[in-house]
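Reviewers of the previous submission asked for a worked example of the structure-prediction workflow described in the proposal, so we include one complete record here. The input consisted solely of the amino acid sequence. No template or homolog information was supplied to the procedure at any stage.
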Amino acid sequence: MDSRAGKTVKLKKAIRRLLGEGHPWIFRQALEGPRVMPGRVVTVTDAKGRFVCRGIAESGPIGVRVLTTRDEPVNATLFSRRIRAAAALRDRVLPRDTNTYRLLHGEGDRLPGVVCDVYADYAVLRFDGEGIVHWKDTLSGFLEETLRARGVSNLLIRSGRGGDRRITAAFGQLPGEPVKVAERGMQLLADLEHGQKTGMFIDQRESRWRVRNLATGLRVLNLYGYTGGFSVAAGLGEAEHVDTVDIAAPALDLAEQNWRLNRLNPGKHAVYPADVSEFLSRAAKRAAGYDLVIADPPSFAPNEKSVKTALKAYSNLHRAAIGSVAPGGYYLAASCSSHVRRDAFEETVREGARRTRRIVQILERLGPPPDHPRLLAFPEGDYLKVLLVRVVN
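From that input alone, the workflow returned the following structure tokens.
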């Protein structure tokens, strides 16, 4: 594919300034003109016919994903330039002893709808939306050159969701088993073929590092523990004991493997295949609480309509989790719901503390690491919110 102008559509809303600042989406209701097939190049003009931006037509509520605000072609050269720029950024911001990271972060790298994560000598490419899929071959072709230069010899493409999820090899081969990766020296196994996201939650790197530096001598509870990334971080931080809770037994199997992989004392780690709310209900009956509780649940708000219900669910979770923290202990609460704003999320922590008659101090606000950049004009990109508090009474 190679096109300078493609189809032309006009803005019917005054959002030219916002687009000029870098916002990567134009919703369909802001456009007038014929509906363009997903994947086609679209030139957007203002009401007077002046050039505004150029991007790719999309299906659904988003009409156009913006690729450039310059009057330039949308073609292989543009994609190649964006990939090289993203790779150069990672070379500068990645921590030492880390070979798992996000190489392409969609809108944040001005490649909306494109995510590429690296796991040692594997990379996983995922697309959001129907339009960008039409450019799959172009993107994977330029990615091959960049990835091989970084020592990555296998590129996998994940598509579909849930039971329809598929994974194929664009080049190289499927791993056939979990891949061992390093994060600040911590060893973890990532299931690229069946795991969540593209294999693991790379975006919680900074929060895991905080836990590792906080956990010395503490009794730690990791809720929604998945494959135990936070648990291993606490173990490496010399926690007294770590409990990992998740409803999925296969994930807990990997959590135990990860614990052993890091040569940690098996007697200091226990896993519980249980519903989190039920586990916390039982924990509330114990006299002694935990010194550090971590709650990083799956998204409670998959869309805007579910926000009200999600906020109630967060509040209930925080009430139970804070109730299980010993006086003077810590609570790390996370939300990966992009539809839940940070101030609303923090209010649910406040409400949870109020309902348990506990007083908390905010110690730190965390989020994705710098290999997950967010455009300043795109607040919708603030999907991950992490709050570390201390329960003072």
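DSSP finds nine helices and 20 strands in the chain. We consider this example representative of the routine output the project will generate in years two and three.
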